[in-house]
Amino acid sequence: MGSELKYFAVLAITVAALLHSTAAIETHVVGDEFGWIVPPGGHYAYEAWASGHKFSVGDILEFNFTTGDQDVAMVTKEAFDSCNSTSPIELKTTGPANFTLDTIGSYYFIGTMDKHCELGQKLAINVTAHSGSPTPSPSPKPSPTPRGPVTYVVGDHFGWIVPPGGELAYSAWAYGKTFYVGDTLEFNFTTGDQDVAMVTKQAYESCNFNKSQITILTTGPAYIKLNLTGEYYFIGTMDKHCELGQKLAINVTTNPGGPSASPTPAPAPTPRGPVTYIVGDQLGWFVPGKYDYSAWANGKTFIVGDTLVFNFINGTQDVAVVTKAVFDNCTTNSTLAVFKNSPVNIIFNTTGEHYFTSTYDRHCELGQKLAINVTAKSTGTATSPSSSTTPSSHAPSAHSPAASAPYNSATPSNINGSGYFFTFLLIGLAFFH
């Protein structure tokens, strides 16, 4: 009897091992296409990313970053909470970096470079055991499965708020979700603190809208049914909420198992006047990590007459207007113009590609660079510029006048310290202090 029990015990262990070995191992690319960066606005971006994934023992986390620009450390919960990188469990400085999730429980990761953790480069996940069911080899992705209507809670447990770091939060929430005709969006917010409106793509991108021409839902929770296919755009209309990232864009398709719906007619472009964009929003112009400013520019439309405002602390940064070759190679000893006094206001007078960086040592190589494309001017009547600035205690002194210049890529001599002057106050850059 004892030998039989021993036999069955060994058999059970063998079967369990086989089940574990055949369980599907998944590689999770942290941040998906954004990779492992200092997110433009706080840790919510990676928290939102993790909420859409299930992590099991044996899975792999892949941190994609440029070697020298970022790093990643596995740390304790206490180090994660306090952003203490002095004694990491494991530190990897070469990208991409992979971590195998060997045990169940909580895992904590941070970037250890200067202020990267404090600025939101941190990820906490929970790892569970595999179900134990053998998983067949990967097969071609099946056709979408018909399903009934689904109600999506925007932002999940965070709800509809001004996210602590920019629109990446809601982009991350929507990523990977499939929205069908007949589904419903639920915007959870406290009445009086937030609101939500469905707007055109142009209003979404510029945060420039006329409240008298849109329907604003002011009572939370607000429910919006997706009745037609096409792109939907939502924003918060309260003071600067849109500029600070309270915005959501989704695409709605036809449910393969439901009734078809006529495509949503594309709305006519809404003419707009000049818009003032704050580069990096509340983060300002600094050394951010290689992909931050491309992420900031993504989804924005720049037209002739628009203005870029570069906010920084004088003596720590500058703004250099450069050619594409200089931008690509970071050979900043050859520039079209350099501005040293914050804020720097650049007005676009021509269409085409425009390139900006810094002449400070290695700032360009470390990611302080911005490339944008300016399109033709809107055909509508120009209105007053809309600004995403907020009052600040860091307004320039009389000895450091703000640079404001019309920008013409064809004639660099047009870039100077004179021209149109905009009296915008700087965003508070408290995290530098």
TrEMBL record:
CC annotations in GO: plasma membrane
Which InterPro entries does the record match to this protein?
A: Cupredoxin, Phytocyanin-like, Phytocyanin_dom
Instruction: Identify the species of origin.
Output: Rosa chinensis
Q: This protein's superkingdom?
A: Eukaryota
Per UniProt, which keywords does this protein have? Disulfide bond, Glycoprotein, Signal
Transmembrane spans: none
For this protein, the record's Pfam families field holds: Cu_bind_like (PF02298)
Record domain Phytocyanin: where: 26-129, 150-254, 275-376
Extract the ranges annotated as region (Disordered).
128-148, 380-407
- PANTHER family noted in UniProt: BLUE COPPER PROTEIN, PHYTOCYANIN DOMAIN-CONTAINING PROTEIN
Q: Using the record, list the residue span of the signal peptide; answer none if the entry has no such feature.
A: 1-24
Q: Where is the composition biased (Pro residues)?
A: 135-147
Protein name per Swiss-Prot or TrEMBL: Putative cupredoxin
What one GO molecular function would you report for this record? Answer: electron transfer activity
